[in-house]
């Protein structure tokens, strides 16, 4: 049994508020109070930033809990100890354990997932947990912890029907994970975030491009120098593609140094070079080059095309896309069309996914994801990049295809 099977197509149901998860956690003895936590939010890049941060702690000898969402291939990905997915039997144990609480407190799928993380990390006695916020911040289930540190990568317009239609409103939601007397690291020098932090009277704020920065030295691999206060680390190399990953990386690194000034430069470099994060500018094959990227909003799509065109200068691009109907997918399609030589639209196997009736006639629509990918590969030549982007549910399905799952 998987956790989402208990929710009968209600896994996407969102019901803002912290009372349900507070009561459910109290029912089990408040496990979230038994370990130290770090919260990470942001419109884009929070997963990669969380992965870099987890790696830094693990390489310095900490036992880490890692909670992330959504999963790409297998639900077990959501709960990790030292980057190892929870075992099937253990996950089944926690599902059975929280079943009564799901009904008693009317938990959403994400709340139930968060509750399992709290119980699992408490039972495993982790030194620190890195918790990726699911949506927004203020009303996210993870936000009942008292974080030692909060990180917000950036804000852009996404989930506007829930978080607000301006950057200021979205920033106010996300800044809700920060605490007045605990450090906050911002991965973007955006006025909306700075104003929100000021309004909440956050006393210790570290901001990218103000307090810490990078000097990019190469694109493949991404290599850069890092500067923060009196600290300089040269020639940091990461395995993830994209210069924006350097920003995610140093945002995590700054958070780690703020938390733990007793660090090893060598361990930092090893941790960052060996950080992996699937589904973000990930090369699945060569000849032709196939890249997947879960860029599911306008800002992320723009950045991804910028990176691809910078790395693969002069190449043609065939883009395969699918996304959610409740996103502003028409604006995303406009960006894709402007940056692609050919566009193929497909359908993800969720009710919220776009289908042929949503798509303008100018685009090819291939309902089967596997057939859409094969069509792109068949039409590509040595001078073509195949870029598969959109919802992370699309990325998960593509990974299954390439793995033969």
Structure in words:
- The protein is α/β, with parallel strands linked by helices and 405 residues long.
- It has two domains: 3-273, UDP-N-acetylmuramoyl-L-alanine:D-glutamate ligase (3-Layer(aba) Sandwich); 282-403, Protein-Tyrosine Phosphatase, Chain A (Alpha-Beta Complex).
- The chain is built from 13 helices and 17 strands.
- It has helices spanning 19-27, 46-59, 88-104, 109-123, 160-163, 167-174, 191-199, 243-259, 265-273, 298-311, 329-339, 369-379, 392-403, and strands at 36-41, 64-67, 79-81, 84-85, 128-132, 149-152, 184-186, 205-207, 212-218, 222-228, 231-238, 282-285, 289-293, 316-322, 342-345, 364-365, 384-390.
- It has an eight-stranded mixed sheet, sandwiched between helices. It has a six-stranded mixed sheet with strand order 12-13-17-14-15-16, sandwiched between helices. Strands 9-10-11 form a three-stranded antiparallel sheet.
- α7 (191-199) links the parallel β7 (184-186) and β8.
- α2 (46-59) crosses α9.
- The radius of gyration is 21 Å and the shape is globular.
- The chain starts with 18 loop residues before the first helix and ends with a helix.
- The mean pLDDT is 92.
